Amino acid sequence: MAIDQRIKQELERYLQNRVGKGEYRAVVMSAYKLDADEIKEIKSAIPVLKTYDIDNIVNENILGGLIIKFNTKIIDLSLRGQLKNFQKMMYEID
Amino acid sequence: MKLIDQYIKEIEKDITRSRLKIKTEEVGAVAEVRDGVAVLVGLDNVSYGELIEFESGVQGYVIDMTEDTVGVIVLGDYLQLKAGEQAKALGETLSMPVSEKILGRVVDPLGNPQDNAPRIKADKHYPLEKVAPGVVFRRKVNTPVQTGIKAIDALIPIGRGQRELIIGDRGTGKTTIAVDTILNQAQENMICIYCGIGQKNSKMAALIELFRKQKTLDYTIVVNASASEPASLQYLAPYAATAIGEYFMDKGKDVLIVYDDLTKHAWAYRQISLILRRPAGREAYPGDIFYLHSRLLERSCRLAEKYGGGSMTALPVIETLEGDLSSYIPTNVISITDGQIFLETDLFNAGVRPAINVGLSVSRVGSDAQTKAMKKVAGKLKLDLAQYREMAAFSQFESELDEETRKFLNRGARLTQVLIQKKNHPYSLAYEVAALYAATKGYLDNIPVTSIPEFDNRLVAYLENKGKNWVKNINKNKTLTEEDEKALDKIIKENVELLT
Predict the structure, then answer these.
(1) Does residue B7 form part of some domain?
(2) Between A45, A48, A94, which is nearest B118 by CB?
(3) Which of these, A26, A30, B90, B96, has the minimum number of CB atoms within 10 Å of its CB?
(4) What percent of chain B is predicted at pLDDT more than 70?
(5) In this structure, what DSSP letter does residue B445 have?
(6) Is the pLDDT of residue B130 over 90?
(7) B105 found inside a domain
(8) B362 and B381, same domain (yes or no)
(9) Could you tell me which residues come within 8 angstroms of residue B486 by beta carbon, excluding any fewer than 6 positions away?
(10) Last residue of a domain, one of B370, B403, B422
(11) Inter-chain residue contact B25 with A75, CB threshold 8 Å
(12) Residues with Cβ < 8 Å from A25, sequence gap 6 or more?
């Protein structure tokens, strides 16, 4: 019997967390697919990620830049995030 | 055009200031949305009391941390939240933006203006939750707060730095006492803060209109979390008001803060605790309902000279049901405060307004906080009233009593009448001393009780016109010298003659 793809992913994630490997996975979201060199640059720029396995997910909604997620932390360097901050700043000034 | 240019320049300045930093933020996702409370998963490294921002822009305040989840009270409209929505931790505790410009403003517990005027530019951010000043930082309370209400200033005097509870049933005049005190602080160099918790919007509007008309807003701040605001804002309102008070206290100023009322504050906290599934105790209140009020009221104190010498006087208000002083919340707050002003429905209905039960009301600071002038007249007043209360039961047998008893009853009735005063009409120190002097020295014993309000009006009018010097003298020196007494004797005799 074939297992649903989503259940497989959840199971994988759960098992990796139990094994302890879940601690060392990071997700890098970008607006286009990143190649190996770019991922190496990211790893060197952010020292925390040195020992982490990086999954690269493409999400055009972020418009540009990167969003890096690991554990429960997030580093928002996306264009969408900056625009949101800009909008907030504009409303605060009067 | 100029305004737009200015606006764009401000934006430019702010953008160039904030560079893109590699900042790590904690995130979580909304797992459950309950009434005013959101339960989030994730947010592993968040601390208690930290601010959270949801994707939709609404803010939250961390109030519950369990092994896997974080409970957050939503500081705004919780109906916008969706399950799975991302939330970011802002890394700072909830603080109130304060500056001198906050005087005269109406704000909500988050610092947002509610009076259609521009935002308050913050000079400092004062945290809502703070540990009260320790023993070493405090000084004895010995300067008075002139409430302008004869009964309180004479018999239950309040000092700067004291906490005095105003307690009574609904409709007995609790808010009126607090408001009259605020109205009387115009010349007293005192900053007033009125914190409305769960009050009707109409009542708050009427109050703000009264303050505006009497020019009270020049030295008053109103913190408003009305009944239509979410329970989270009602819970935070008194702490927000205290944070503003601490800003001024740290600058060496004297602050008067009114919490109206703490009963509704306890209800809001009970609502939040029950939604968070915390164990319910007596009357369904959570176990830390005492700590809720004690940590609030302990922050009102008088600081030592070394730390600025400022003070914060608290007038919390509690509503009782059927005059039951021994119910849960009233007994809690009575044990925290330095005294209470007890208002009774029976007295109110009998025409004694302010309906203060002088026998049950107490001020644990007492005469240390009275001016010398007031101390002279108040001592005798207290004694006479106590004797009157003892014999009040015999007043029905008037014809069969002896001369002494009849004299006491006579005097007591007149003293009670003198202590009655109109709503929103606080008296300055000089007028209070004059009226009480007349009553305690027996000048009023021969005029009918019903003419006493007229005597009061005449005395005030006389002092306003021909007795200006006497008034200025008393208000400045705050003592009653031999000459002052003689002058007052003459004034009173004149006015009494007009009535006999």
Answers:
(1) no
(2) A94
(3) B90
(4) 99
(5) T
(6) yes
(7) no
(8) no
(9) none
(10) B370
(11) yes
(12) A16, A52, A53, A54, A55, A70
Three-state secondary structure of A29-57: EECCCCCHHHHHHHHHHCHHHHHCEEEEE
Return the higher-pLDDT residue of B30 and B404.
Answer: B30
CB atoms within 10 A of CB B52: 25
* Lowest mean per-residue pLDDT among B71-75, B192-196, B438-442: B438-442
pLDDT at A94 over 60: no
Q: Are the C-beta atoms of residues A48 and A73 closer than 8 Å to each other?
A: no
With beta carbons under 8 A apart, name residues in chain B contacting A90: 11
Q: What is the ipTM of this complex?
A: 0.75
Q: Is the pLDDT of residue B310 over 80?
A: yes
DSSP at A2: P
Domain that holds residue B75: 22-93
Confidence at residue B2, expressed as pLDDT on a 0 to 100 scale: 81
User: Cα(B111)–Cα(B97) distance, rounded to whole angstroms?
Assistant: 6
Dihedral Cα A4, A10, A15, A20, nearest 10 deg: 150
Q: Quick check: A74 and B42 CB within 8 A?
A: no
Cα torsion angle, B90, B95, B100, B104, sign: positive
Of the two residues B394 and B222, the one the predictor is more confident about is B222
Asked if the Cβ–Cβ distance from A93 to B25 is below 8 Å, we say no
Q: Which pLDDT value is given to residue A43?
A: 85
Mean pLDDT, chain B, rounded, equals: 91
Q: Is residue B355 located within the same domain as residue B468?
A: no
Tokens describing residue B12: 């430019």
Whether residue B262 is found in the same domain as residue B300: yes
Interface of B with A in 64-93 (CB under 8 A): 88
Q: Any idea what the CATH number is for the domain that residue B392 is in?
A: 1.20.150.20
The answer to whether residue B15 sits within a structural domain is no
My answer on whether B131 and B157 are in the same domain is yes
**What is the pLDDT averaged over residues A9-33?**
80
B15 contacts in chain A (CB < 8 Å) = 86, 89
- Asked if B423 and B176 count as a contact pair (C-beta separation under 8 A), the reply is yes
Spatial distance between the Cα atoms of A68 and A53, rounded to a whole number of angstroms: 12
Q: What is the pLDDT of residue B336?
A: 96
Q: Residue B102 falls within a domain, yes or no?
A: no
**Same-domain check for residues B379 and B401:** yes
Asked if the bond preceding B261 is cis, omega within 30° of 0, the reply is yes
- Tell me how far apart the alpha carbons of residues B383 and B406 are, in angstroms, rounded to a whole number: 16
- How many structural domains does chain B have? 3
Specify whether B362 is located in the same domain as B419: no
Same domain, B337 and B414: no
* Closest-CA distance of chain B to residue A1, Å: 31
> Which pLDDT band holds residue B209 (cuts at 50, 70, 90)?
very high
Residue B140: pLDDT over 90: yes
